[in-house]
Amino acid sequence: MFHKPRNAQVSRVSRRRFLELGGYGATMLGTGSLAVGLNSTIMSSRVQAASSDEAKWKQYAGSKLTFLSENTPPSFAIRDNIKAFYDLTGIEVEILTDDLPVVQQKAGIDLRSGKSDYVLNYIQDKPIGAPFADFYVDLSKMFGDETLPQDVDGYGDDAWFDNFLSACGRFYSEDKIIALPYDAAIAVTFYRQDLFEKYSKDFEAEYGYRLEYNENSTWKNVLDFATFFKKLKEGGADVPYGYAQHQGSFAWTTQLDIQRMMFAHGRWTDFNMDDKIGSKEPGPTNWGDEQSVLMLEKFKALADVSHPDNLANGTLELNTVYQSGNIAMQVQYHEFAASVEDEKTSVAAGGKTAYAPCPKGEASWILNGGPAVNGTNCGIGGIGINANAPEDVQRAAYLFAIWSTSKNIQYDVLKGLGGTPTRKSVLDIPEVQAAKSRPSAMPNALTFDAVYNFGIKDPNFVLGPKITEANEYHSLIASETQRMLSGEMSPADTAASLKDQIDGLNGV
Amino acid sequence: MTDVSSLSGSSRDVASQLFRARAHSVEVEARPRAEITHKPRKFNPPMPKYYYYYLMAPAIAILAFISLYPFFWLIIMSLQDVDIGGGEWIGLKNYTKLFTDARFIDGWILLAQYSIMCLGLQVGLGVTLAVVVNSSKYEKYLVTALLMPMMMAPAVAGLLWLFLYNGTFGWYHWVLQSAGILDSASILASADTAMYAIVLVDVWQWTPLITIIALAGLKRVPRDQLEANMVDGASPMRNFFAIILPNLYPVLLIAVLLRFMDNFRFIDSILVLTGGGPGSATKILPVYLFEVAFKFFKLGRGAAIALTLLIVTILLGKLLVRVFEKPQGGKG
Q1: Which of A237, A283, A320, A418, by CA, is between 20 and 30 Å from A426?
Q2: Residues A398-451: pLDDT tens digits?
Q3: Rounded CA gap, B157 and B149, in Å?
Q4: A293 to chain B nearest CA, in Å?
Q5: Where is the protein found, in the record's own terms (chain B) (predicted)?
Q6: Which chain B positions have a beta carbon within 8 Å of A248's beta carbon?
Q7: Residues A267, A356: contact at Cβ < 8 Å?
Q8: Are residues A392 and A500 both part of a single domain?
């Protein structure tokens, strides 16, 4: 009879009913998250060999993939530019980034438990590739597949810089390729040419040669430079230390630090095997031989005259020491040139720093009869696909792998965030050629001649052992070397201890 | 008793109304007490035992799934050479290998050193701070300030101290160097000092927990005992050792047990600060366990280490309880 206000007509939801609805909602959300959030989803419309390139790129439109990567510049730049990939393919890619040890643990658990929550993986050669190589897809089967788009530059060894494809892609077999080179960190010498020029006469008066650094400079010269600067500093002069090592933080950068000096002298390696392919049964180690003992003695001598924080400085901290003007020289990865050349954060910027290959071996320090070379090592990060994923997911992931390693994307990353290209064709771009000289719009390019045209070429290139026990091996090298540098053990005892433990590790 | 029949008319009605209750009451009182033929119904009658088991079953099942199942799986894994994908039965080999593993033995020694230093400093400083705070008129503000380090995630605390210790721009490094405590190397760069650095971080972060617990204990120290002791001429120091400390034993037991167990499992800040280095100077057993299980993916060996750690934690926990219970037991 009377008009009822609208509110009054709404039936009340009881508290019990409210809780029931909440419970249903939470269950549905949880199930949905598990189904959608943790796994890649795939939508497929297969194409034929004769289909257009556009159709081949779009064949998995509507799919979703997850890429687990280290927090390196390419991943940030690609994440910023991910819409371009979506526009090209219709595939949504979530890029998760973290520190390399975390990436290694997450990827390891995912791979070894038979799951594929992370379909695309950043495969750093030794820490991730060596222990988990068997869990990745052989990409060579997709090269040339006419139902998939292909990169015009191809995927053979010639498409990449020397040794890159082997470093991150080949493990224990020549035939299988598990990753495409995605980014690279190559060791190169950064030195303060302003300080070298300033103190050249004083140095020459004491050592009989000029304070200069070039590709013929040896590790003995580096020892002289470091000794000279330390003496000046202890005499009260306002100078930095001469040199510093990477002995803190990541075990594999600690291992790389000593390895390039060992390799420079007679191309000494840990095992008698081809490092570029690696071996699951590496046999007895060479640690403990007279060359290794001598090298440890020289390494310790260099540490004693280097920056005193050697044992606390990881790669990043070491670069901070250099940027803050506390050392005159460092062997550092070439991706750090961009930060060193940043005038806002670095006192070594503005043309004060020069870049040259890693130091050469000193002939008088070689006991094994091998040649003296400029031992140069690296970490090559590849992009690979989890073999636990279904075939269509693998094919969709392949689209991202080839897109993210293409010439144009690598050039964009180099321009944008200071990346480190892996494709040779990037160096052919006129802007990149121009950036190799000062003033440079892409400071990393200042290192390219020393790195790409010299350091990574044979006979200077050294990768380090690819063995299934790579991570424990790195840990052993790091802790025993650090104990020696702390004065806990002599070089001879350290070499003997390493021999004992590494052979035990490999079941020799 | 009022006789309403002697009243008339409306007065009688009013009186009837007024005294009805009373009259009724008299009737009730006069009635013989009724015999109770049945037991009154209880609100919560005792149920058979199985009923409670039914009620607890879901919780027990969930607890078993998330706690007991992994525990038994851990034991099984420790007897296998196992990775996540599967394993091979090797009996007690993982355990026998531990006795020849120098890193395992070093890990125990370092863990003992680390725990003793942390616990000793935290209990000493924590109780002292609690006494100071308890007698301060700014107690509320001091307690709030003390809580701050505890609110921080251990990994974040590690990062904070990593910057403070940094040899290039670290403020504490500058202070320690200016005071002549450090020479040129930073505190984390020397195997001789790195252990003290990680102990300091733990002490900074967790001493407030001991303080808060001890403060709660101080509130229940009987004032009459304190006053009686003071009347007898006892010094404040004597008061502390004779009255306050014995009364604090029960709460300190809880605090020490908590921190002791935490020291045996917290590795976040150590991983951030030193990663176990330099060399193996700060590679206490839990750090080594983490490396073995999640860096080397030797899950069988990791399980064996974890079980030895668990057994020792339980045994030492029992020992601690006995040590703390003794003074209480003596007083009956």
Answers
A1: A320
A2: 999 999 999 999 998 898 878 899 999 999 999 999 999 999 999 999 999 999
A3: 8
A4: 18
A5: Cell membrane
A6: 188-189, 274-275, 277-278
A7: no
A8: no
